Amino acid sequence: MGKIFDDDGKVRDRDALLSITIGGRTTSKTTDLSTERASITRVEDDHGSTLNIQPRTVDFDLVERIGD
Amino acid sequence: MGSMLCLKTFEDVFDATQLAMDTSGAHTWKMALFDDSLVIDPETFTAYGVAPFNAGEASGGGYSAGGQSFTPTLAIQSGTQRIRWNSALISIANVTDDFRYLLHYDDTLAGNNALFVCDLGAEVSAVAETVNFTPGANGWWRIRGVRA
C-alpha cells in the first residue's frame, strides 16, 4: 500500500488517516470595481476568479427643440 | 468618451448602400473588447477592424480575435415608447487583458459593420478569469421614439 501524507507532508498510517478531518470551508472574496457606467464585481473563491460586468442601459433619448 | 451608436451604419442601412444588418438569427454578431487607448468619433467609426477598431483589442488566453459571438435582438419595449437592443449574458472564459470598450458588430457582413460601442467608464483588468457581461436591466441601449 502506498504512503499516505497529511497536509504537512508527514507520512500517516491508514488508521491515522481515518481520524483526519476531510473537507474544508469554501471562502469567497468579492471586490467591487463598479464605475458610474457599469456594475463590476470580481468574485474569487476556491474555484478561481470571475468578473461580473453589467453595463447600465444607455438611453439615447430625443431632445426636441421647438423653433430650431 | 461614453457609449455611442454608429451613425454611419444607420446611414448605410437607409441610403443606396442598403446595408443588410440582420438580427433574425441569420447573421453572427460579435462583441469585441478594446482598451482605453481608443479615440472614437461617432460620425466616423464604421466597423471592426477599421480605425480606431484596428488596434487596442484584447488578446491572449481564452479571448479570440474578433470577440465573442452573441445573439442580439432589436425590438420595441412595450409601454416605454422605446426600441431596445438586448441580448442574453455574454461570457468569455480565461480572459487576461485590459479592456474598457465593448464593440457590437455584424460579423457576417463583409464589412464587419459596427452598431454600438459600450463604454464601461474605466479600464478593467482581467487576469485569467471568466468575464460575464450581462446587459443592463433595460438592455444594452434604447432609443425613445418621441420626446419624453
Structural account:
The complex is a heterodimer of chains A (68) and B (148). Chain A is built from 1 helix and 6 strands, in the order ββαββββ. Chain A has a 3-stranded antiparallel β-sheet with strand order 3-4-5, with no helix packed on it. In chain A, strands 1-2 form a two-stranded antiparallel sheet. The longest helix of chain A has 5 residues. Chain A starts with a strand and ends in an 8-residue tail after the last strand. About 16% of the residues of chain A have low confidence. In chain B, the strands form 2 sheets. Chain B has a 5-stranded antiparallel β-sheet with strand order 1-7-6-2-3. The longest helix of chain B is centred in the N-terminal third of the chain and has 8 residues. Chain B starts with a strand and ends with a strand. The model of chain B has no long low-confidence stretch (mean pLDDT 95). Classes of the chains: A mainly beta (68), B mainly beta (148). At the A-B interface, strand 4, strand 5 and strand 6 of A face strand 7 and strand 8 of B. Strand 5 of chain A pairs parallel with strand 7 of chain B, so a sheet runs across the interface.
